[in-house]
Amino acid sequence: MTAAHVQPTQANAAKQYEVRRADLPLSCPLPSMALWNSHPRVYMPIEAEGGQSDCPYCGAHFVLVG
């Protein structure tokens, strides 16, 4: 029996992403994204930034919900 292969989402495809506390620590690209065509992974302190943070590489905007 084999596990189903899950296709990662395209990195940096959207300009705004909603993340939940379960997704922390926050990094861009997100762990569910493909890394081969993206910038190096960077971790961002979204909780210390009032629940919002921007990636210094690609400008993606992250909003903490929930």
Automatic annotation (TrEMBL):
Gene3D superfamilies: q5lls5 like domains
InterPro entries reported for this sequence: Znf_CHCC (IPR019401)
Pfam families for this protein: zf-CHCC
Assigned keywords, A-Z: Metal-binding, Zinc, Zinc-finger
Ranges of residues in domain Zinc finger CHCC-type: 38-62
Gene Ontology MF term list: zinc ion binding
Protein name (Swiss-Prot/TrEMBL): Zinc-finger domain-containing protein
Protein species of origin: Luteimonas deserti
